[in-house]
TrEMBL record:
InterPro entries: AAA+_ATPase, ABC_transporter-like_ATP-bd, ABC_transporter-like_CS, Metal_Ion_Import_ABC, P-loop_NTPase
GO molecular function: ATP binding; ATP hydrolysis activity
PANTHER family registered for this protein in UniProt: METAL TRANSPORT SYSTEM ATP-BINDING PROTEIN TM_0124-RELATED
Family: Belongs to the ABC transporter superfamily.
Keywords: ATP-binding, Nucleotide-binding, Transport
Official protein name in the record: Iron complex transport system ATP-binding protein
Domain ABC transporter: 4-242
Gene3D superfamilies, per the entry: P-loop containing nucleotide triphosphate hydrolases
Source organism phylogeny: Bacteria, Bacillati, Bacillota, Bacilli, Bacillales
The keyword Kinase is annotated on this UniProt entry: no
Amino acid sequence: MSIFSLDTINWQRNGRQILKDVSWRVEKGEKWVVFGKNGSGKTALLNIISGNMFPSSGDVKVFGETFGKFPLWEIRKRVGWVSSALQERLKSHESCLDIVVSGKFASIGIYEEVTQQDKEKATALLTSLSMEAFATHAYMTLSQGEKQRILLARALMADPELLILDEPCTGLDIPSRESLLQAVEDLSRESDLVVLYVTHHTEEVLPFFEKALLMHNGEIHKKGQTEDVFTSGHLSAVLDLPVEVTKTNGRYYTVLEKAEFSRSWKTGKTDM
Ligand SMILES: Nc1ncnc2c1ncn2[C@@H]1O[C@H](COP(=O)(O)OP(=O)(O)OP(=O)(O)O)[C@@H](O)[C@H]1O
């Protein structure tokens, strides 16, 4: 079953074309990586899928419902989102347990009745992420890696069908990054949950992300099986920079092709 499908989506703002002819279909249970340079349109794309923005043209179907014929807030409730923008908006003096519970209502703060069942569910999520000891701690006292785990638990509180992780490893050291990635895999591998994982770092692409999409200047450059997408040629094209991609133990590592880079730098054929 298709969780969402985008058909020839265009989005313009202030006379500028930000998304161009984007078509993408994602099926139940798929785990995707979304990769592209700063400003390539990744967030704009995710905002349309999650019902936060309306495209200028094109058809969007999410959870089998067509945009425009279905309340967008119904869609938003079924999407879990982890991003640094969300981290900034949260009320940082609240306890971690309350932050997780607020995920049920998709609210910043809690304005509705919280049941014992809600608390138990939030506690179970904290435990599954090895964060139970932090339940009563104020969110603002946590480290960046701990905060991201709380946001992941919060996103899962409403049993989403679609989980968007927008650069969740930003600011994390290698052990925290690896343990967050492992937690994402453990929590979603066997489930029907669709995960869209946005990153700028190829080494974060765990083998369980079987599909990948590359954005370039608001267009999809390539999408499909990750191993066919994460090649030196495709990444060089979307980064506008000659890079070499190698695969070691199932992970992708990207380095600059130095000789090529210094040549293009001198001739001005790079936009870096
Ligand atoms: N509401 C808006 N009004 C005008 N321009 C916008 C708006 N939202 C995004 N843009 C522009 O659209 C382009 C794509 O932005 P977007 O945030 O989708 O990029 P991104 O790929 O998510 O980048 P990053 O990796 O830096 O987060 C950018 O040039 C941005 O300035």
